[in-house]
Amino acid sequence: MTSVAPTIQLLGQVPYELIWQRMRDFTDQRDEATPDEFWFLQHPPIFTQGLAGLASHLLAPGDIPVIKVDRGGQVTYHGPGQWVVYTLLDLRRLGVGIRELVSALERSIIHTLADYGVAANARREAPGVYVNHAKIASVGLRVRRGCCFHGIALNVDMDLAPFQRINPCGYPGLAITQLTDLVGSVDMEDVRHHLQSALFAELY
Question: Which of 39, 114, 160, 191 is most open to solvent, judged by the fewest CB atoms within 10 Å of its CB?
Answer without folding.
Answer: 114
